[in-house]
Amino acid sequence: MSDVTTRRAKKTAQGPYGAVGKALGELDDRLGVAKGGRTFLDKVFPDHWSFMLGEIALYSFVVLLVTGVFLTLYYIPSQAIVTYRGSYLPLYGQHVTEAFASSVNLSFAVRAGLLMRQMHHWATDIFVGAIVVHMARVFFTGAFRRPRELNWTIGTTLLILAIVNGFLGYSLPDDLVSGTGIRIAYSILLSVPLVGTYLAFFIFGGNFPGTDIIPRFFILHVLIVPGIIITLVTVHMILLVRQKHTQFPGEGRTEKNVVGAPMFPVFMAKTTGFLFLVAGVIALLGAFAQINPIWQFGPYDASRISYAVQPDWYMGFLDGALRIFPAWSFHSFGYTIPLEVTIPAVIFPGLLFNVIMIWPAIERRFTKDYAEHNLLDRPSNRPKRTAAGVAVLAFVAMLFIASSTDVIANFFHVSLNTVLWAMRVLVLISPFIAYPLTYRICKEMQGVRGAGKRKTANVVTRTVEGEYVAEPAPAYVDDVADDLEPTEVPRFIDEPEAPAPESGVRIIER
Amino acid sequence: MSESIEHRTPVEIAGLAADDPHLQPAARNPLLVERVIAVLFLVGLILVVGFGYCYWVDAAAWTLGATMGGGLFFLGLGLVAWGKYLMPRGPFVEQRHEMASDQETRDAFAAAIVERGGGVIKRRKLLGGLLGGGLGAFGVVAIFPLLRSLGPLPKDTLFHTDWRPGSYLVGIDGRRVHVGDLAVGSLLTVYPEGTEYTDRGQAVDQTVLIRISNENFVTQKGRESWGPHGYLAYSKVCTHLGCPVGLYEQQLQLLVCPCHQSMFDVTNGAIPNFGPAPRPLPQLPLYVDSAGYLRSQSDYHTAIGPGFWERS
User: Fold this and answer.
1) pTM value?
2) Are A205 and B278 an interchain contact pair (Cβ–Cβ within 8 Å)?
3) Which of A159, A420, B19, B143 is packed most tightly, with the most Cβ within 10 A?
4) Which residue numbers in chain A have pLDDT < 70?
5) Is position B116 within any domain?
6) 8 Å CB contact of A203 and B206
7) Which chain A residues are within 8 Å of B8, Cβ to Cβ?
């Protein structure tokens, strides 16, 4: 009895919100967090399934950090030769590098080591994939437009860093397949005109393979590149919070507001749950889908090779470009420019990522649209942008397929020659087919009322008199969107001279 | 149904009464949803405990992943469902604020940089110049360690291998190759004796030895003595990107690189006839000594491997 009284008295002394309220008060006394904190908790997140793609990238990165820290505890970044005396008998007694031996040991001798390694590898593949799909979403809905150009640039940089770090990590076990990848990377460095040999010698500490590259890749992979990635992800998030989310047009949604669920507790519950879902799926993949069984490939030996050597998927487009590019080497004045390597492996990816990075500026030049956009486009309403994006994706996808020419030839029993020429032709014509096709489809979709929207059911009810009445069910909130005020009609890229005067879109004549 | 549409009009979350319909759960039957979520959490909890058990008894790797992954998955599913169905249904609205400040603030900001700060520098041009010069020089000097510490200069290392006049050809096991060792149509990877276990031997000196016939074989003009007893030796480093050219297609007499499918004609000086490799594989001139062992006449006459700027 007295116990209850004292507890109640204590609670009253702490104010209406108890111990939490008191602690927050103490914090606010010193840091003044109450106002900003409340605003942050009230922050509204719009709801659309496609906004989840970036979250997949973020959370697979979290999984990467956690599993990666685990792996560093057991991995030894050294190319010193040791005799393998672990539990995997086919390798027993072989001379292998410490990097390879420790990778095999952490898979077999460390509890949960194999699971962590496989999760780490799966998480990488998912990380890069989620970034690509997230970027496609941002691209096709026009979310990169003013004021978010800077965040688009940061995102593109993150994609490049993710690919680079994926390659670095893939190289660390020093197995036969990844070692071949390092060899190819060395040759690509060599191919850079003028400074290529210096570049390769400085990065590798001498002629290939040397003994420096695994320790150097290790420190890049676990410290330097992830450090940059974490910094850029943080800036990416800060910009997102500062500029607020984009949203699709819909009831009550304007350029000047955000409609959705509050940060706390709704969004926080959903997004934390989603973190668990992503981590759970990656763990299940790590448990049931074998990936990169390095003990089967064996240790790297520069004079050995395996059949059907393919890199991880995100390097596929580069490998494909290297395969199908013709043998055009340039020799003159006693110098060589190995164009057969420089163009597909240096110039092409440089060009591709630069175009992606400055796309917001390119599009602005064509549309003369300098206005701020917080409402997203339907991809079909922007046929030219959508077609351009699909054309680039088709081109890169064909290059990706071209990285399997030998497997395709083997599988379909056609000659390698035929497959190679077919891929050369397909790579070159695919954008020219994809662009007009996408453009046409977009135009058709514009003409069809309700295209791309969910169909609503007819609700049939029976009245008391026994009469049946069919009424269309109310449309989904998101789908009534375009017809409602105050949604602004997006201006189409191909009709820049016909803006709605009261649309609030500023036109700047140049 | 009309009721739910009415409540779909978004409102500001701040200052809503506790019984506002926007703050009610989204689910039509919250009790049922609560039970379903409870089951999800329970399954997740059991799996997470199972993970601890599997880890403790050192069970198979897949059981660790299955319990951990399953546990996280069910907990996550429950949490998402909680957020989606049992928390305030909304929708809520928040106003955006214009990023741009008013002109006065902007001008004051720019003035502080250009006039206050810039003025200080303009008045003391010498100091600014010296400081800039010092930092600039440091930037240049800081590049030196990058150039001189990271690795040696290439010099002419890319033009040479360890093959010398008279080097014995040995296999990976270190055994010297005798003229009677290979049958016609077979192949062996060889190294100059003493390098077979070294990284450099494997990466740079690796050579593919093919016996193509029993008689001397001439692959090109000027290479009359290079293929004694039908033994031909080519650099195994692909001239495209440096992969080992490890596939020998015996019927067509082709060496195939498994990485990017360049093909080299063995009978004709390993000239590439398919794929992205631009140059033939350099051929190693061989001879058979009096004891019948295969040895190299000299190093390769051209630089092996992929292209680079200094290669003529």
Assistant:
1) 0.91
2) no
3) A420
4) 1-5, 8, 10-13, 449-454, 475-510
5) no
6) no
7) 251, 477
- Residues in chain B with pLDDT values less than 70: 1-8
- Out of B91, B153, B242, the one facing A183 most closely (by C-beta) is B242
| Secondary-structure percent of chain B, ordered helix, strand, coil, rounded to 5 | 40, 15, 45
C-alpha B95/C-alpha A80 separation (Å) is 61
ipTM for this model: 0.92
- Contact list in B for residue A243 (CB cut-off 8 A) is 99
Question: Which residues are CB-contacts of A176 (< 8 A; sequence separation ≥ 6)?
Answer: A297, A298, A299, A300, A301, A304, A305, A306
Q: Is B182 found in the same domain as B68?
A: no
pLDDT in tens, A295-330: 999 999 988 888 777 889 999 999 999 999 999 988
- Three-state DSSP at B254 gives strand
CA distance A244 to chain B (A): 8
Q: Which burial class, exposed, middle or buried, applies to B239 when counting CB atoms under 10 A from its CB (0-12, 13-18, 19+)?
A: buried
- Among B79, B88, B202, beta carbon nearest to A272: B79
Which CATH number goes with the domain that contains B262? 2.102.10.10
Asked, for residue B136, whether it belongs to a domain, the answer is no
Q: Is B39 a member of any domain?
A: yes
Q: What's the domain range around B82?
A: 2-86
Among B70, B86, B102, give the residue marking a domain's end: B86
* Best B3, B4, B13 residue to mutate vs chain A (most A CBs within 10 Å): B13
CA distance B62 to B51: 11
* Residue B302 is assigned to a structural domain of this protein: no
Pair (B58, B178) in one structural domain:
no
Q: Identify whether residues B166 and B78 lie together within a single domain.
A: no
How many CB pairs below 8 A link A and B?
A: 306
Kind and range of the H or E run holding A471: strand A468-472
Pick the last residue of a domain from B64, B86, B108.
B86
Domain total of chain B: 2
